[in-house]
């Protein structure tokens, strides 16, 4: 049995190894991410605000959130800044939300460059506001046209592969279990006692050196 001192030694070593692995990940593997946030205040021309106006502002906030993340707006932002990125990449790195009990919309962009994140957030505000003004002048207005999506929406290839691997593992373990249960060979003294119901007085051990010499003699 291991003493308590050895247990503590193992714990300390594993903690140090974990810390070194974490430090290596932070310094060599992890890519730094930066966020920049821009705020938009939805100002109404009317000085008096009623309950219906507050409800309308809430609905407009939801509309703005959809418009600002629409494909045409994000593609314009990418083109304006001449960035080597796709619509999906910018869409996934952009979050738009409303600040509770206010008429302020918060736009946050995440990027590996702090400056690029700020440029994207600011340009997204400008292009989004331009699009909103354009929408107000036309009724109805096409916010985003449909594009060809080559990604199938039924079964994911990764899920199918994982399910196949899981089923294979279950089948393999099940087969081994069935083979073990059906195997009635006597493997030990305990098996003899359980099968015959009588105690075993002595047993003959296997001489590994003798077995090896026999195998060597057969090969010759």
UniProtKB/TrEMBL annotation:
**Transmembrane regions listed in the UniProt entry:** 6-27, 160-182
**Main location per the UniProt record:** membrane
This entry's Gene Ontology molecular function terms read:
protein tyrosine kinase activity
The record's section on Pfam families has: Wzz
Keywords, ordered alphabetically: Cell membrane, Membrane, Transmembrane, Transmembrane helix
**Domain Polysaccharide chain length determinant N-terminal, chain residue ranges per copy:** 6-81
Cellular compartments per GO CC: plasma membrane
Keyword Ribonucleoprotein set for record:
no
Q: Where in the cell is it found?
A: Cell membrane
Asked whether the keyword Transmembrane is assigned, the reply is yes
Membrane topology of the entry:
Multi-pass membrane protein
Q: Which family does it belong to?
A: Belongs to the CpsC/CapA family.
Q: What is this protein called?
A: Polysaccharide chain length determinant N-terminal domain-containing protein
Protein source organism: Faecalibacillus intestinalis
